[in-house]
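Subject: Predicted fold for Large ribosomal subunit protein uL22c, 157 residues

User T.R. writes:
Posting the sequence so we have a shared reference for the thread.
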Amino acid sequence: MIKKREPYTEVYTLGQHIYMSAHKARRIIDQIRGRSYEETLMILELMPYRACYPIFKLIYSAAANASHNMGFNEADSIISKVEVNEGTTMKRLKPRARGRSYLIKRPTCHITIVLKDVSLDEEYLIWLRKYEWIYRKKSTNMMCRDKYGSGVVWDKK
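User M.O. replies:
I've generated the structure tokens; pasting them so everyone works from the same file.
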């Protein structure tokens, strides 16, 4: 049996040569993976790390690409995949006493963010209903999202 699916349900952005270590970027990326677009923006605005700003710009750019190029609604988007890879390391020499020099390494990283439109992906909605992250109100027969759960395994009802 062949299932018909919408071919374009994902939009990605790639930020290359961002001046921060991959370890510091992963600390933030692990907090936003799998969350909705609006929730991600709120989290990034309130986190006290310097690495949040470039990630915030990349997510904002991915949403702008999705709404302009593909016609996606930003409220229905989730962060489906996020990768942080190490980039090149810039090496600089700092002058020291007695004519010596000291090597300074400036690490860079590449960040890839994939936004997925949940409204077009029916299999994802079925999966969310199965684990009770989306439920249907019996009184009004409307779909409701669990806004207090972060979407990880231990947040199940």
